[in-house]
Amino acid sequence: MALLQTEGLVAHYGDFQALFGVDIELREAETVAIIGANGAGKTTLMRSIAGVLRNEAASVSFDGAPIGAQAADEIMAQGVAMVPEGRKLFPSLSVEENLLIGTYGRKTEGHWTLKTVYELFPILAERRHNPGTALSGGQQQMVAIGRALMSNPRVLLCDEISLGLAPVVIKDIYKAIPQIKAAGASMIVVEQDIAQAMAVADRVYCMMEGRVTLSGTPDNLSRDDIHNAYFGAS
Ligand code: ATP
Q: Which pLDDT band holds residue 143 (cuts at 50, 70, 90)?
């Protein structure tokens, strides 16, 4: 059974329909990547799962229970945390205060504490009293990931964690993913960089114009398949 699943998921912004019946699943201990061009609906999918956008109850299920109609804080309390696109830190708060926000509403103790987050990203321990604004983009991204981990999630949703970062910084951040996985989280990673997605994921879904156009394991998807699913068949 899937740990998290969407079935026939649709989403609208006013009259505009952004998702048209999306079916994906995430199994226990898996890392799934969602790839696709700008505007494909990847962020909308993450926001729908996290409860930022409300849906039909049955269109999202977690651990066998329908959660599609629940609010974001209820979903988070059950163990689904999101690292949002654009990081969304509180700029006037310190690194440590931003991390501690992740414990709000947490119901379970687990692997992730300030100590283990600082072990994962040692630079954050050095900067613990600095305000969010005094950090580089990569360090801010580490705080955003750490803050989500502080809730000890069973599922971590990461929306474009490499956006706008230099390749060497992206490498540093992606180095953390196997450790997050080893600590017990299943993950959905939204990524525009196909090679990065392929390197980190057990399975990949490609989206185009609000629909899943391809899915498979990195080994069994060819470059042509991905190109067609990403941009449309030529
Ligand atoms: P990106 O890589 O640019 O973040 P994406 O695949 O995450 O793209 P979404 O952000 O989910 O795509 O957008 C899907 C569609 O919904 C796009 O056509 C976008 O213009 C539209 N959209 C997204 N957010 C809103 C909003 N708040 N109001 C209206 N339309 C929106």
A: very high
Other C-beta atoms lying within 10 Å of the C-beta of residue 193: 16
* Angle between helix 167-174 and 137-149 (nearest 10): 20
Pocket test for ligand 1, best of 9, 15, 20, 38 (most atoms within 8 A of CB): 38
Q: Is the pTM of this model over 0.80?
A: yes
ipTM over 0.90: yes
Distance from C-alpha of 90 to C-alpha of 215, rounded to nearest angstrom: 36
Work out whether strand 186-190 and strand 155-159 pair parallel, antiparallel, or are unpaired.
Answer: parallel
**Distance between Cα 36 and ligand 1 center (Å):** 12
Q: Which CATH superfamily is domain 2-85+154-231 in?
A: P-loop containing nucleotide triphosphate hydrolases (3.40.50.300)
Smallest CA-to-CA distance from 19 within 38, 45, 50 is with: 45
